[in-house]
Specification:
Number of domains: 3
Strand order of the largest sheet: 1-2
CATH class of the largest domain: Mainly Alpha
Low-confidence stretches: none
CATH superfamily of the largest domain: Fumarase/aspartase (Central domain)
CATH architecture of the largest domain: Up-down Bundle
Radius of gyration: 31 Å
Number of strands: 6
Largest sheet: 2 strands, antiparallel
Distance between the termini: 54 Å
Strand content: under 5%
Helix content: 55-70%
Oligomer: single chain
Structural class: mainly alpha
Order of helices and strands: HHHHHHHEEHEHEHHEHHEHHHHHH
Bound molecules: arginine
Length: 467
């Protein structure tokens, strides 16, 4: 192996002293930005090829650089390259290793480039990849929800407002509500991709580069649809990271709402669902416990994802143009958000796929309740009573039924008629089934509407990973 490279000293020719040890550790980003090695090398490969194509370096030098970079990528992948805080970040680490491998030719790679456009290039490549993984995991999650909804098409559950029983809904309709949230999330991430998909290389440190580079060539090599049009903006823009983190925060918020329902529904008081044992935790003291830790953590991790978003917004707030070292703080939060979101989606998908649905308990939960009160009011409206009066009559009826300890079904026709002469025998035909069937508006919970919705969204996500 060649002798140890002195990259860190090479950059300090205007100084007489080396950097303080504590400072070296403080400013280093290599402990976390090593994760950008693949993107950094891809960017350098395209840049070197462009430099050769433009005659800015020789073909031979470009070949040396390219083969050196490819070998370094292998070393990193095999865990053979040590990451040392002396070399500050992934860019200097790879450059230094290239010097060790190919000597002074390595110094030509940084022609027409700055770490400022290099780092944001890496980050854009990283975010683009993260978006595609996120969308694919969101799709898996949607398919899991859809699978459970399709397998339980006829199940009716109490729908809630204020967490009080409100009106019956199809269980599938409830799950499809989450499908819709996740659908908006997918579109949000795809939209975020448009802003991430811009090549910053060529912006240099801040003012553009003083060489006849071919930015379109580099963009095409790296798969960018656009190139940035203002060099100052390009090196200091982290909107695409903020957008990813914002979209992730919204997705986590959605997941945390479903998580809360899983916690609630798996409780002894509800028992609407039962978690598969592979997705439940035990207690260290109470042997009977079957805890919904996955759902709780999905709910809890939402906090750190919000934190990362607020963290970066705060880092960026008030920063003068162009690059500032503050921006190095963009990475840990981003990596954490991507890791948290992807793992939450993956584990939660499994939880949903293996969930046992207790339709009988849902039915039972509605049996003694007054969840059909709106339907009784609607019944009176159909017989000619204005809705506000119907609401008033049924309110009194509910009060009476509660005082007698009876359900609506248990009231006699005479008891009904004590509140309105419009009540007739057919009042006893009102059930949770007729209640959901009545709501056949587009977007409503009637079985034919839900079946149509299931068909529509199944087309959207396809068959893969079907339960
Ligand atoms: N590690 C730095 C970061 O993450 C790379 C860019 C450094 N540029 C500079 N001029 N010091 O932002």
């Amino acid at each position: 192996m060649a002798k140890k490279d002195e990259t860190k000293d090479r950059l300090r020719s205007r100084f007489q002293k080396g950097v303080d040890k504590a400072v070296e550790k403080y400013v280093a980003s290599i402990p976390f930005d090593w994760r950008l090695y693949k993107q950094d090398i891809a960017g350098s490969l395209a840049h070197a090829q462009m430099l050769a194509k433009q005659g800015l370096i020789s073909k031979k030098d470009a070949e040396l650089i390219v083969s050196g970079l490819v070998a370094i990528r292998d070393e990193i992948e095999q865990g053979k390259l040590e990451f040392n805080p002396e070399l500050e970040d992934i860019h200097m680490t790879i450059e230094s290793r290239l010097f060790e491998k190919i000597g002074d030719v390595a110094g030509k790679l940084h022609t027409a480039r700055s770490r400022n456009d290099q780092v944001v290039l890496d980050l854009r490549l990283f975010v683009k990849e993260a978006i595609s993984e996120t969308v694919s995991k969101l799709r898996d999650f949607q398919r899991a929800l859809l699978g459970v909804a399709e397998a339980n098409k006829t199940v009716i559950m109490p729908g809630y407002t204020h967490l009080q029983q409100a009106q019956p809904v199809l269980f599938a309709h409830h799950l499809l509500a989450y499908f819709e949230m996740l659908q908006r999330d997918v579109v949000r991430f795809q939209d975020c991709l448009k802003r991430a998909d811009v090549l910053p290389l060529g912006s240099g440190a801040l003012a553009g580069v003083a060489y006849p580079v071919d930015r379109d060539f580099v963009a095409q090599k790296l798969g960018f649809s656009e190139i940035s049009v203002n060099s100052l903006d390009a090196v200091s823009d982290r909107d695409f990271v903020i957008e990813y983190e914002a979209a992730a925060a919204i997705t986590m918020m959605h997941l945390s709402r479903l998580a809360e329902e899983m916690v609630l529904w798996s409780s002894a008081e509800f028992e609407f669902v039962e978690l598969d044992e592979a997705y439940a935790a035990s207690s260290s003291i109470m042997p009977q416990k079957k805890n919904p830790d996955v759902a709780e953590l999905a709910r809890g991790k939402t906090g750190r994802v919000y934190g990362n978003l607020i963290g970066l917004l705060t880092v960026m707030k008030g920063l003068p143009l162009a690059y500032n070292r503050d921006m190095q703080e963009d990475k840990e939060g981003l990596f954490d958000t991507v890791d948290t979101l992807l793992s939450t989606l993956e584990v939660f998908t499994g939880l949903i796929k293996t969930l046992k649905i207790n339709a009988a308990r849902m039915q039972q939960a509605m049996s003694g309740s007054y969840i059909l009160a709106t339907d009784l009011a609607d019944y009176l409206v159909r017989k000619g009573l204005p809705f506000r009066q119907a609401h008033n009559v049924v309110g009194k009826l509910v009060r009476y039924a509660i005082s007698k300890g009876k359900s609506f079904q248990e009231l006699s026709l005479d008891e009904y008629r004590g509140f309105s002469p419009l009540f007739a025998d057919d009042v006893h035909v009102i059930t949770v089934e007729t209640s959901v069937a009545a709501r056949s508006v587009i977007g409503g919970t009637a079985p034919e509407q839900v079946v149509a919705a299931l068909l529509r969204v199944r087309k959207l996500v396809g068959k893969r990973n079907e339960k």
